[in-house]
Amino acid sequence: MNAAEFDFGAPAPPGDLPVRWIHGSPSPRHRSDPAIQVHAYDPATYILRESKDVSFEAPFLYLFFGNERAILFDTGATADPDRFPLRRTVDALVETWLTAHPRAGYELVVAHTHSHTDHTAGDAQFRDRPACRIVGRSPEEVRRFFGLSDPVDDPRSFDLGGRTLDVLAIPGHHPASIAVYDRWTTLLLTGDTVCPGRLYVFDMPAYLASLQRLARFVETHPVRWLLGGHVEMRRTAGLDYPFRAKYQPEERPLEMPPERIPSLLSAARSVADRPGVYPFEDCILYHGVRSGTILRMLGRGWLWNLRYRLGIIP
Ligand SMILES: [Zn+2]
Fold first, then answer.
1. 8 found inside a domain
2. What is the CA(4)–ligand 1 centre distance, in A?
3. Distance between CA atoms of residues 3 and 101, nearest Å
4. What was the pLDDT predicted at 290?
């Protein structure tokens, strides 16, 4: 290791969580959130949140630095760099990193926890960036890039330079879904497959197999936190903010304990043959999404946002 390199051989610092995230503005007329919140979890790990003022999806993005490259997981729900300056934000973080740890040809990889548009819309901002690779969005491209085989049982490692990630295929919410484990911090990114929000399961057998794969993984690896793509649940058990809600003052924390995986697996198994909507304390399982369910969700969100615009904060 030369002096300019970050010492990933030393134990990772504890990491700064929980944190108060931006969660929308109390009034649509007085927007107070920045477009992106940048949270340094530790000096080599950043968690970013897109503002609810920019997109109701308000996804979380993750930036990991290594000595040879950095990797960004997800690019948010908004393409427009004026409304959502992701490239500028990430470039500034890379520049700060390179000031402390100078290195020629330092690369940025842009990848995704899955390929839904609320996690990929900002890709275009990186297309002309030098020293940047953007991972494709199809399951085949994702698996080829990370070397995941078919069948997809084994994790594959990805080297950032002194810092190694393990990538697991976890289809079910989306065919290209992956989980990402950082051996240094022992954080496990779970995307929209496991998060404190509405878990839309489009392929239940695949989802169960993925939770089983994750359960085996957390059993055999130390995991500090599970970190997902959204927070949609309130602190009140089993209650979510409506779909499209733009203000979430009483959100649950983003981070979930690793023990949540086996308990979610048994809960999902118990309803696997009965499509429907199943609320749990910290998430809601949508097993099959029917048109009636979507209409109810849209109606509830529309009413909620009407009250928000009128200043009657629910
Ligand atoms: Zn999402």
1. no
2. 37
3. 8
4. 83
Position 151 confidence tier, pLDDT thresholds 50, 70, 90:
low
In a domain, 10, yes or no: no
**Strand 198-201's sheet: what is its strand order?**
198-201, 284-287, 276-279
Ligand 1 mean position, distance from CA 119 (Å): 6
Range of the domain at 133: 36-309
Question: Ligand 1: distance of its center to the CA of 33 in Å?
Answer: 20
- Using the mean position of ligand 1's atoms as its centre, give its distance from the Cα of residue 257 in Å: 20
Q: 57 C-alpha vs ligand 1 centroid, how far in Å?
A: 7
What's the pTM?
Answer: 0.97
Cα of 284 to ligand 1 centre, how many Å? 14
Q: For residue 124, how far is its CA from the centre of ligand 1 (angstroms)?
A: 18
How far, in Å, is the centroid of ligand 1 from the Cα of 270? 25
Mean pLDDT of 266-275: 96
Structural domain count, the chain = 1
Q: Is residue 16 in a domain?
A: no
Give pLDDT tens digits for 76-98. Answer: 999 999 999 999 999 999 999 99
Exposure letters 187-217 (e unless 16+ CB within 10 A, then b): bbbbbbbbbbbbbbbeebebbbbbbbbbbeb
